[in-house]
Amino acid sequence: MTKLLFSDIDGTLLRKDGTISPTLARKLREMGQAGHGMILCSGRPLDGILLVQSYLESLSIHFPYSYVIANNGALVYDCNEKKAVLEDRLPIELIPRAQALAKQYHVHLQTYTDHEIVCEKETPELLHYQTHVKIPAIFAPDYTKALSRPPFKMLALSLDGSDALKQFRVQIQTALGDGVQTMFSGAGYLEIFSAQASKGNALRFLCDYLSVPVSDSIAVGDSENDIPMLLAAGLGAAMQNATETVKSSAGFITALDHEHDGLAELIDTYIL
Fold first, then answer.
1. What is the block-wise mean pLDDT of the chain (272 residues), using blocks of 10 residues?
2. How many domains, the chain?
3. Residue 211 sits in a domain of what CATH number?
């Protein structure tokens, strides 16, 4: 029976240095050769995921399906046809409210065009982010002036994990209303996106789109924004380095973390 693996990227597929080990590369190649599929599913914007997809292809890792899930499920993208098959964007009128609140709490806030980061100025948070997600930035005092259409998400960052980001989360949720949700995608990374979007909804959509039974899906991740897909999948798996909340939502927890082939362990246990 073929399986469809929905894998988070940062803290799950990739090590801290942005690479995968030879062991995991071999397991992924074996997966593809056996007819199993893998869908990259991340809070990253599309271009940030496509860089990882290209990296895997450079290692001769190929899968039957060529789709990715970006922006926490707000975008499902067909890489072969180069088109979106599902989109859920934020209302652009929410951006100025979020900007004002970010200034009040001294939080770095960025949003995105289809190919660039949009923020007010270069900050340590932006430079840190770009070491992992290598896409360019443009600067604009009013983000809406740089956007030709509504964005998929906003991202608030804090390098020190300060209480300011937690306070900002409470206030931004109140200010933007029920149409928006917030989730942490990692320490100091607060995702702000449509309440209708989630990795879980995208998983269910793509399984239906590809005529793959949800019962044959496996989802794996490490952060709060992964919980919806862990709950939606036939099997939800948490990495050993996942937060305790994520682990409590999983049916399987790897013994190894993302630095030591935890994903290869999952593949060996449930797929190969």
1. 95 96 97 97 96 96 96 97 97 94 93 96 94 93 95 93 84 91 90 96 98 97 96 98 96 98 97 94
2. 2
3. 3.40.50.1000
